[in-house]
From TrEMBL:
<keyword id="KW-0597">Phosphoprotein</keyword>
<feature type="modified residue" description="4-aspartylphosphate">
    <location>
        <position position="57"/>
    </location>
</feature>
<dbReference type="GO" id="GO:0000160">
    <property type="term" value="P:phosphorelay signal transduction system"/>
</dbReference>
<dbReference type="InterPro" id="IPR001789">
    <property type="entry name" value="Sig_transdc_resp-reg_receiver"/>
</dbReference>
<protein>
    <submittedName>
        <fullName>Response regulator</fullName>
    </submittedName>
</protein>
<dbReference type="Pfam" id="PF00072">
    <property type="entry name" value="Response_reg"/>
</dbReference>
<feature type="domain" description="Response regulatory">
    <location>
        <begin position="9"/>
        <end position="123"/>
    </location>
</feature>
<dbReference type="InterPro" id="IPR011006">
    <property type="entry name" value="CheY-like_superfamily"/>
</dbReference>
<dbReference type="InterPro" id="IPR050595">
    <property type="entry name" value="Bact_response_regulator"/>
</dbReference>
Length: 156
């Protein structure tokens, strides 16, 4: 395994076994790959694991990729979302961006080099989000401390 990116945890949700196998075979030496055959199984994995990049197919039997991504926005805001589809309807793209908070909309069949680049960019975005959260938390604590000292000075 390429140790440089081995810590990047990618969840790939795809109902077609051949596509899941192909994804895993292509990227298992690059990333820590977890696959799920359904949105329900993907949800179980999200509850149990830290996922950095989430890739889901749009057309699945139980629910669409957009429906799945929309349903997890509040509960699992951290994974960066990529939607894969063999169909490029503009309405699907708009809906995915607006409801599922996707980072990237990619088409099937996917090119391995291109998808690897997208995953790496998604992980960079994930890291940036976490760095921003840490900065906000630190600034909030500093602000609370300053407010406390200001109140103390006003009281005395």
């Amino acid at each position: 395994m390429n140790t440089e990116h081995a810590s990047i945890r990618v969840l790939y949700i795809e109902d077609e076994p051949h596509n899941r196998s192909l994804f895993e075979a292509t990227f298992q030496n690059e990333f820590s790959v977890i696959t799920a055959p359904s949105a329900a199984k993907g949800l179980e994995i999200l509850k149990e694991d830290t996922i950095h990049v989430l890739i889901t197919d749009q057309r699945m039997p139980e629910m669409t990729g957009i429906e799945f991504l929309s349903s997890i926005v509040e509960t699992f805001p951290d994974p960066v979302r990529i939607l894969l589809t063999g169909y490029t309807e503009l309405s699907s793209v708009v809906e995915a961006v607006n409801q599922g908070h996707i980072f990237y909309f990619a088409t099937k069949p996917w090119d391995a080099d291109n998808l690897k680049t997208i995953i790496l960019k998604a992980y960079e975005h994930y890291q940036k989000q976490h760095e921003d959260k840490e900065v906000i938390e630190k600034l909030t604590k500093i602000n609370e401390g300053l407010e406390f000292h200001l109140r103390q000075k006003l009281i005395s």
